[in-house]
Design brief:
It holds the Pfam family MoeA_C. Residues 166-311 form the MoaB/Mog domain. Catalyzes the insertion of molybdate into adenylated molybdopterin with the concomitant release of AMP. Its cofactor is Mg(2+). Belongs to the MoeA family. Helix 3 packs parallel to helix 6 (294-312). 18% of the residues lie in helices and 28% in strands. It has helices at residues 5-13, 143-151, 189-199, 217-228, 248-254, 294-312, 362-365; strands at 19-23, 47-48, 52-56, 61-67, 81-85, 97-100, 104-107, 110-113, 121-122, 156-160, 165-170, 174-175, 185-186, 209-213, 233-237, 258-262, 266-267, 273-278, 284-290, 322-324, 336-344, 349-352, 369-373, 384-389. By secondary structure, the protein is of the alpha/beta class. The strands form six sheets. It has a six-stranded mixed β-sheet with strand order 6-3-5-4-8-7, with no helix packed on it. The chain has a six-stranded mixed β-sheet with strand order 14-11-15-19-18-16, with helices on both faces. The protein is elongated and about 95 Å long. A hairpin with a 4-residue loop joins strand 21 (336-344) and strand 22 (349-352). The protein folds into four domains: 18-41 and 126-160, Molybdopterin biosynthesis moea protein, domain 2, CATH 3.90.105.10; 47-122, Molybdopterin biosynthesis moeA protein, domain 3 (Beta Complex); 165-312, 3-Layer(aba) Sandwich (Molybdenum Cofactor Biosythetic Enzyme, Chain A), CATH 3.40.980; 322-389, MoeA, C-terminal, domain IV (Beta-clip).
């Protein structure tokens, strides 16, 4: 899950999504496909940072005009002249200083005062120079980036096309409405996984969610083949083991898929998988097999699907932040333990949550992420450990 994980999966498994030009208002949550650079110096011209007087000479100054934001002033060509100037207005050529209005006096049409030693205007290029790289390709676009792009003079941005994802829900035991009963349980992943995928930058349409798919090999093959026709990534839920009705592995074999990852030494969630398929025209698509237990499925999303999607969008996975454990967290032997925790920001610690069985979602609903307990270790109070944050809405930042 380090900085190169997404790029590594992309490099071994596929190609980045195509770049498209989009209006600024339609780029939140996208990824820059090329560096962001200003079209002009920022600011593009000397700009007054206060309300006051743009003066020439030592004064007192005779008022010869007024400059408001959005206008181009005539130059000051005579000593001891001034123009009234508003914050954000262009400073006229020939001005030697800007005098704050609150530090000036006006008597008989003449302005007096002592300008401060530090210039009271922003110089061209003070924030950035034209064509200077401000943000690299691969930067996630959020409201701050959109505002910066607008200030640089851009109307559109070239961003990576969001990968299109589909979801196949496997399991005859699943209900899609009403409470669990008569040996059948409610499908919790069909409604939830698309929302997680959107937080990782995917497009998921209602028609892209299919299931429950009948627990037969022909039904699995037909459903996966259909989903792959339009999706860059197909997630499936359940069927990742080798039980009597676990048909995902035979389905992948029937479709000629190659495994990128087949099980991961992590608890919960170890029977996750990632496979790739290539068309004769070189198009590459992916299948992510999520375990059927809900919390295990989310572990697969944050640890396996997230790096893949980052790589496809040209993003680097961030280095995991560290948290201090407030309570003990057990290890899981030779497996990495991803333990749900809630951040107590006031105390500066992370606390394990309760109700965290692999089939439970109550703990997940109150958690901020997964504390990483490495193989062969356990977490003790006061230990500093990495945390895998749960994904946020597009444009949000992790604190």
């Amino acid at each position: 899950m380090g900085g190169s994980a997404g790029a590594g999966l992309r490099g071994r498994s596929g190609r980045r999504a195509a770049a498209v030009a989009r209006p600024l208002v339609d780029t939140d949550g996208s990824t820059l496909a090329e560096p962001l650079t200003p079209r002009t110096d920022l600011p593009a011209f000397p700009t007054s940072s206060v309300d006051g007087w743009a003066v020439r000479g030592r004064g007192p100054w005779r008022v010869v005009g007024r400059v408001l934001a959005g206008s181009t002033p005539a130059p000051l060509t005579e000593d001891d002249t001034t123009v009234e100037i508003a914050t954000g207005a262009m400073v006229p050529d020939g001005a030697t200083a800007v005098l704050r209005v609150e530090e000036s006096t006006t008597v008989d049409g003449l302005v007096s005062g002592v300008p401060r030693a530090a210039p009271e205007w922003r110089k061209p290029g003070e924030e950035a120079y034209a064509d200077e790289e401000l943000l690299p390709a691969g930067t996630p676009v959020d409201p701050a980036v959109i505002g910066l792009a607008a200030s640089c003079g851009h109307d559109t941005l070239r961003v990576r096309r969001a990968p299109r994802a589909a979801l196949l829900v496997f399991g005859d035991e699943l209900l899609t409405a009403g409470p669990p009963a008569a040996g059948r349980v409610r499908d919790a992943l069909g409604p939830a996984v698309p929302a997680w995928l959107r937080r990782y930058g995917c497009q998921v349409r209602p028609s892209d969610v299919v299931g429950p798919v009948a627990d037969t090999l022909p039904a699995h093959v037909a459903a996966l083949r259909s989903a792959l026709a339009n999706a860059d990534l197909v997630c499936t839920t359940g069927g990742t083991m080798n039980g009597p009705v676990d048909h995902l592995h035979p389905t992948l074999e029937a479709l000629g898929a190659d495994y990128v990852v087949n099980t991961v030494a992590v608890r919960p969630g170890f029977p996750m998988l990632l496979a790739r398929l290539s068309d004769h025209d070189g198009r590459v698509r992916f299948v992510a097999g999520l375990p059927g237990n809900p919390q295990s499925a989310i572990v697969a999303l944050v640890s396996l699907v997230a790096p893949l999607l980052a790589g496809l969008q040209g993003r680097s996975m961030p280095v995991l932040p560290q948290v201090t454990l407030a309570e003990a967290v057990p290890g899981r032997g030779d497996h990495t333990h991803l333990a749900l925790v809630r951040l107590d920001r006031a105390a500066g610690v992370a606390r394990p949550v309760r109700h965290v069985g692999s089939a439970m979602l109550r703990g997940l609903a109150g958690a901020d992420g997964f504390a990483v307990i490495r193989p062969g270790t356990s977490g003790e109070p006061g230990d500093r450990v990495p945390i895998v944050p749960l994904p946020l809405l597009p444009g949000e930042r992790v604190s």
